[in-house]
Amino acid sequence: MRFMFVGDSMTIGRAGDYTWRYRMWQHLNATFGGPYRIVGPRSELYDIHADAPSSHAYADPDFPELARRHLAGWGEGWQHMAPVIGPAVAAGKADVLLVSLGLIDLGFYTKADETAANARRFIGEARAARPSVRMVLLPVIPNVRAESDEPFAAEVARFNELLAKAAADLSTPASPILLGARPDAYDIHRDTYDGTHPNASGEHRLAGEFAAVLHQAWGIGGPYRAAADRA
User: Fold this and answer.
1) What band does 230 get if pLDDT is binned at 50, 70 and 90?
2) Per the domain annotation, does 62 fall within a domain?
3) How crowded is residue 148: how many other Cβ atoms within 10 Å of its Cβ?
4) Could you tell me if residue 225 is inside a domain?
5) Which end of the chain has fewer beta carbons closer than 10 Å to its terminal beta carbon, N or C?
6) How do beta strands 134-138 and 177-179 pair?
7) So what's the pLDDT on residue 227?
8) Percentage of the chain surpassing pLDDT 90?
9) pTM of the model
C-alpha cells in the first residue's frame, strides 16, 4: 500500500522539525503489519533562511530518505495542489492520500466557496489519475488568526462545512473519502510553536487523527501510540 502526505506548511515542516509525517511513519512501522511505501515527488523541509523548500535537516537524521516523500509546500494550498496532484498520484501510484489543506488558502488566496471548489477539483484530478485512490481530508484546525479575526474564523467554519459536504457528495465505494476531525484536545497554546504550526505534541495529535481514521474506518494500522515523552 502506498501513502502520500499532502499539505501546506504544517505538513512540509521547517528545518529542524520532526513533522507529523515522521510521526506517521513511526506509527505505520509499528502497526501496519505488512509492506507499505510513502510516496510523493518531494522530500525537503522548508528553510526559513533561504525562503525555499531546500532543507534536509530533519530533527531525526535517521529518518529514511524514502520515508520523507511528500507533496507539501510552505504557502501552498488547495489551489496549488489541484493542478499537480494528478501527476503525483500517477507517478507514485498512491493508494491513500492523507490531506491537510485549507488554512493558507483562506488566509491569503481564496474565500471558503472558491477554496471548496478547488478541493473538489483536487479530488477529481486525483481520481482521474488513479480511480481507486482513497482520501482522508483534515478540516482546517484551530489557529491563532481564527482566535482574533472573526470574519476569518467564519470563513474557516464555512469552509469546513463545505469540505464535509464535498466528502459526502463525492465519496464512492470505489474511491472512498473520509473527513477527519479536529485532533483530540488540540490546543494552539500547547500544540504549536507560533499559534499555527505544530510542535512535537501537535505533530503527534495530527498524526494521531489520521491514524484513527485509517484504523477505525478501513482497518489500516492500529490505534495510535505516541512516545511516552511525546518527543
Assistant:
1) very low
2) yes
3) 9
4) no
5) C
6) parallel
7) 52
8) 95
9) 0.96
Q: Does the pLDDT value for residue 229 go beyond 60?
A: no
Rounded Cα distance between 37 and 3, Å, is 6
Phi, psi of 40 (to 5 degrees): 155, 160
**Does any domain span residue 226?**
no
Within-domain flag for 55 = yes
Domain range for 60 is: 2-218
DSSP 15-41: TT---HHHHHHHHHHHH--S--EE--S
pLDDT at 186: 93
- The string of pLDDT tens digits covering residues 6-21 is 999 999 999 999 999 9
161: domain CATH number is 3.40.50.1110
Grid coordinates standing for 115? 477554496
Distance set, CA 185 to CA 98, 99, 150 (Å): 20, 20, 22
Number of domains in the chain: 1
Distances in whole angstroms, Cα of residue 19 to Cα of each of 107, 108, 130, 208: 22, 23, 27, 13
And the C-alpha cell for 154? Answer: 467564519
Percentage, residues of the chain above pLDDT 70? 98
